[in-house]
Amino acid sequence: MKLNLPNKLTLARVLLVPVFMVFADLADIGQPGFKPVYSLIAGVVFALASLTDFLDGYLARKNNLVTNFGKFADPLADKMLTTAALIYMAVDGVCSPVVLAVVLFREFAVAGVRMLAAAKNKVIAANMWGKVKTVAQMLTILFYYFACCLDATPNAMAVPFITQALCWVVAALTLLSGVIYIKDNVGVLVD
Known about the structure:
Blueprint (H helix, E strand, L loop, with lengths): L4 H23 L8 H27 L5 H24 L5 H23 L8 H23 L8 H26 L1 H4 L2
Helix pairs in contact: 1-2, 1-3, 2-3, 2-5, 3-4, 3-5, 4-6, 5-6
């Protein structure tokens, strides 16, 4: 299978996930050995990966390069990127495990619906609410990593409070998008 440019950008996003994880881990946010430069690098890598999300979708639609692979791999790459970041944020204590659970439950439910659809030879692309959810997740994560690198003591100032509030907004949008997704695709669930 020859990959078009949008699909290559999607794969690049997948490859950037472990790079982001290395720098997120090295940053030691909230620890005595906090390294702001690694928080900045993690933020930049995450921003580049997020940019590929917008670019691949734009190019696929503009140049009529939408493929079944892209419909499958694009949301998967988004989930890998944002879930990895949210896990690090939960470890840092700024993302509630409840928020992380809501995000994971929604993703498992959507993946289940997609698998059922695939068994019926259907491919279900992401809807507008899934995209809103993903943008909210990405903006929250970007805020956290860039705000931390600008604040020498990220746990002593407003960064954790603002990040926690944004994470709860993400949870609400994630739940809403999941309910809408399942409602819109209930036909796949019932024979």
